[in-house]
Design goal:
Structural class of chain B: alpha+beta
Distance between the termini of chain A: 33 Å
CATH topology of chain A: Outer Surface Protein A, domain 3
Largest sheet of chain B: 7 strands, mixed
CATH topology of the largest domain in chain B: Phosphoenolpyruvate Carboxykinase, domain 3
CATH architecture of the largest domain in chain B: Alpha-Beta Complex
Oligomer: heterodimer
Order of helices and strands of chain B: EEHEEEEEHEEHEEEEEHHE
CATH architecture of chain A: Alpha-Beta Complex
Helix content of chain A: 25-40%
Largest sheet of chain A: 3 strands, antiparallel
CATH class of the largest domain in chain B: Alpha Beta
Amino acid sequence: MSDVYIARSTAIAARMLGGEMMVMSAVDSTFFTLNEVATVIWQAADGRTPLRQIVAESVCSQFDVDPETAQRDAESFVTELSQHRILIVSAGPIDSPRSGPVEAA
Amino acid sequence: MLKTYDIAVEIGGMPILLRTDDAAFRDLLEGRYAGFVRRSAKPTFEFDVDLVPCSAEMESDDDVRVHQEGGVWHLRRGDFRAQWNPAAGRGNIRQSANPYSIDSVLRIVHSLILANEGGFLLHAASAIRNGRAFLFSGVSGAGKTTISRLAPPDTTLLSDEVSYVRRVGDSYWACGTPFAGELARPGENCSAPIETLFFLEKHAENRIADIRPQEAVRRLLRNVLFFAEDQKLVRLIFRSACEFVERTPARQLAFRPDERVWELIR
């Protein structure tokens, strides 16, 4: 996967609970619970920061993981959520209005 | 002028008036919703029920479809068609003279009402004991009817199938419903603050276990009755489920089918 930009879909509901992010598609009601790493990526998905930069600056700096593994896992995660239209993936920056709100716990 | 017959069915403190020109059908509703009929209640919503003869059109196996258009909800299933305008407080139901179609319409309408108030209808048995309500949720076969049947005399059954959860300030109350399952017995028309939500699992021994809040939300959402194809409502239900779990203990109840399980529920 070449470098991509990711943004949260507006067609979702999300909420932090017990330290983990829960995300539900408002389209098909698919439900995901994100682990700590996935939550960091999710929160950084502003449409303007490339995924590779998110992994380098947000994931590798906070978790004991080598960059290659982190990048591979991040791409897998992004692919899965994009298939459910929970994350928007683009080759270029994504306009901010497409990012969905995240509720506080 | 055609004579009409009214009946107000109050579930969860929400009286809904049903109007028909068929006296026999009104009597049928009177019997089915006996404990929930309120003669003096001022209805919040009114529905005209147009009875049509049984026909191929009204006996198809089409699944339920619920969508909103211009502020009007359209409810449709093989055996009924209904419209409801919440702002106008009115709606109509077209069905044959059977109790099951109107039962489904009422469930859908109440699920939509509750969604906007932070509550929900839940696939769950519920009962009051010592002034507190306990919910027992699970899919078909999990034990809702069984645990209801095993309930001791000091409990008040609210439902063995569909529980009515209302948000009242920062707390949640369970209300009785006439929506019966295999027990074929309507719940009592009363309510109490919810003490615990149990997710049922049949097991060789009786045991209560904690579950993570994320898992509780997942299971709760799996058992919420939700019919509408509407993104706003999906978000509301998601929020309601999260807030319910944040404020109400949710635990797993593994049980064997004998009355000793109720020793754990106090």
